[in-house]
Amino acid sequence: MKYIVSSEEMKRYDKNTTKVYNVPEIVLVEQAAGAMVNELSNLLSKTNTKLNIEINKKPILVVCGIGNNGADGVAVARLLNEKGYEAVVCIITDKQIENSSESFRLELGIYKSYGYKVNDGSLVESLYSDYQNGIPCKYSVIIDGMFGVGLSRDIEGLYYDVIKRLNVLEALKISIDIPSGISSTTGAVLNIAFKADYTYTFSFSKLGHFLWPGVDYCGNVIICDIGITTKSFLDSPPEFRFLEKKDLELLPQRTRNTNKGSYGKVLVIAGNRNMAGAAIFSALAAYKMGCGLVRIFTNEINRNIIQSVLPEAVLVTYTQTEEIETLLQKNLSWADSVVLGPGLGVGETSKEIVKLVIANTDCPTVIDADALNIISYNDDIKEMIKEVTIVQNKIFIFTPHLGELSRLLKVDINEIKENIVNFSKKVADEYRVICVSKDAHTVVCDSCGINYLNLSGCEGLATAGSGDVLTGIIASLLGQKMDPNFATALGVYLHGLAGECASRDTTASVMARDIANAIKIILKEIRY
Ligand SMILES: NC(=O)C1=CN([C@@H]2O[C@H](COP(=O)(O)OP(=O)(O)OC[C@H]3O[C@@H](n4cnc5c(N)ncnc54)[C@H](OP(=O)(O)O)[C@@H]3O)[C@@H](O)[C@H]2O)[C@@H](O)CC1
Ligand SMILES: Nc1ncnc2c1ncn2[C@@H]1O[C@H](COP(=O)(O)OP(=O)(O)O)[C@@H](O)[C@H]1O
Ligand SMILES: [K+]
User: Fold this and answer.
1) Where on this chain does (6S)-NADPHX bind (predicted)?
2) Fold of 2-238
């Protein structure tokens, strides 16, 4: 597990390091520049980085603002010169230098003492005019040190023009900390952003590196250790973290003296006319993820198809609405975890099922797809959820994709895309649930503020039934009695890995069953 920070958090941890641990800011800037130049010189020593650029034959341009991102830039330029590269600084500002940060002034003083060159925005202007005249860029590498975590508003005027011009030049593009123009907290482009091939960031990665559209501007993100540790969190750690392969070691272990009852019983309430597949994928994934028993509660109409495809699952079917309540109560009291919603439909019977489950479940319950849609359309059910989570402490996991999230919140999907983190937190807080907002990088939030950004997965997962597989994985881990928030985050992470694995093994497109089948390959990798 690693932390990912917002702009506000990083600024707080920088400040804690200087104020509480007495590390002068200039020392941090020097450590940042030193660590970055070490990493960068490894990259530059590789002969063919991009466009067959011959790094040693052309100088490096470091474009700096006048805050501490610029201070890093000036220090980087000096250290590159000391290493034998030819690096020049170009300062971009529409303010007097007196308005710069103290570390910037100190770094600029040191840089100038060494006799190294400083330019202003007219240099970018002339490079752009060369570009328009077909003259190749005079610099092999362009390093962006304009704005880092201190970016506080849209980029306009001189800064806008500079970034626009730099973006068209042919050179290897490097950003210090985060591409200028990208919000470190939301990943949004604040009007325009520098497009980097590599981003060297300090101590912790930032949310903006992994949220869209920021991701597309960062290139490869390299984290440089500059001595700011988790001690600088004091008593307020970052809200977000991400999981890594070694976290899979925390999956439930299987031991010799056990039976199927030892690994949890999952009840999948899913599937309706023409939607048997949703129930099958969820149940299949639950089994593959290790639970001992799966029951599928579904419409009788699905009996033959489900039994022929997944005979391991026990079927509980209904033909008439009147029998549903008794059947559900009996099976809910049997279950250790529940999946509610995939392929359920949104008709009156399904609505009744959703209400009955919310009222009667007493184990962690994953609410997905049509069950979420039913909740979205019915304010009385929304209130019911709040009542049972807040008063009765029931554990619900909502797994909306962005369309379902938009329906639930009654907020336009484009607005949600701009700040998926805040909207996920809103659902988690308002309903007191764990909210899994499914996207290329899925966000998992709970109401206690322990949140995850998932970095596994690939476009192979963009296939029908992929979300059903996820519900089965999460419910299976819940049934095996893992902590609900961690089980959810780990389930999302493992689902992503399974998607990557299924995509690797085929040249054709991935299908939901391939993702479920890939779970065993992931488990084999960690267990043997
Ligand atoms: N602090 C530390 O201990 C360490 C910090 N480190 C480094 O410092 C970076 C953070 O530095 P920072 O906080 O000085 O902010 P930074 O990103 O340089 O930007 C602030 C400047 O930009 C300006 N500005 C903002 N938005 C603007 C806009 N749209 N358009 C125009 N201007 C705009 C703003 O001016 P103002 O808002 O006052 O007008 C101010 O001048 C961090 O990312 C890392 O690289 C590391 O060395 C490790 C130790
Ligand atoms: N491009 C992508 N990269 C990574 N994960 C993806 C991508 N596209 C989809 N996914 C994942 O695939 C799953 C799709 O879920 P969902 O939309 O509910 O599918 P369905 O309803 O068809 O089962 C989610 O877990 C989502 O995060
Ligand atoms: K930058």
Assistant:
1) 68-72, 148-154, 159, 177, 278, 343, 401, 468
2) Rossmann fold (3.40.50)
